[in-house]
Amino acid sequence: MIHVSSALKQKPTLVVPPLTEGQQTTLTCTAPGLCPGSPPNITWSSTLTFNPSAEHHGTNITCKISFTGDTTTEETVTLSVTYLNLTCSVESFPPSLIKWTKHSENKVYVQTDSGSASLLIPNVTTEDSGRYICTAEHLDEKVSVEADVTVTCK
After folding, report:
1. Does residue 127 lie within any of the structural domains?
2. Please, which residues bridge with residue 88 across strands?
3. pLDDT tens digits, the chain, 154 residues: what are they?
4. Is residue 1 one of the residues assigned to a domain?
5. First-to-last CA distance in the chain?
6. Do 44 and 63 contact (CB within 8 A), yes or no?
7. Contact residues for 28 (Cβ-Cβ < 8 A; gap 6+)
8. How far, CA to CA in Å, does 48 sit from each of 3, 11, 26, 63?
């Protein structure tokens, strides 16, 4: 007869907040409360606090809990870094004024006279889908380029 303890059936709780590229985040792993007076050993197979980037998207991270008596349990999650980054660059002298807008909205998301403008939308959702327009103004010339963005849910 094989006896399986309840510790093996209860997985740790792994909390991953929304991940935004470049913003430091902390992942939390909580052990099931099974052994009063005998604290478990928590092991991470990856970093605990880090700055998410596009390269982290799709990475598996595991929290492993070891109790006394060689009893272990673990939980694995796949990281999802959600963001949208649109960049528009123009070479000119003097530098062009660049604006990012969204079609059918009167809102200017980014405006700069440095010759390059990046529109970063953290925690992107389907509501961020649409046509984004980069407009460059130089002296009395105006040039625009459009980017159609479609955000889908998994």
Report:
1. yes
2. 117
3. 444 454 456 788 888 888 877 788 889 888 776 555 667 777 766 557 888 887 888 899 898 888 777 888 889 999 887 778 899 999 999 999 999 999 988 889 999 999 899 998 877 888 999 999 999 999 999 999 999 999 887 6
4. no
5. 43
6. yes
7. 13, 14, 15
8. 34, 18, 6, 10
Q: How far is CA 84 from CA 34, 65, 121, 124, 141, in A?
A: 42, 35, 5, 6, 28
- In angstroms, the CA 80 to CA 42 distance is 23
The answer on 90 and 69 residing in a single domain is no
Which amino acid type is present at position 4? V
Check whether residue 38 and residue 93 sit in a common domain.
Answer: no
| CA R_g for the chain | 24
Cα 30 to Cα 42: distance, rounded to the nearest angstrom: 9
Number of domains in the chain: 2
d(CA 69, CA 111): 61
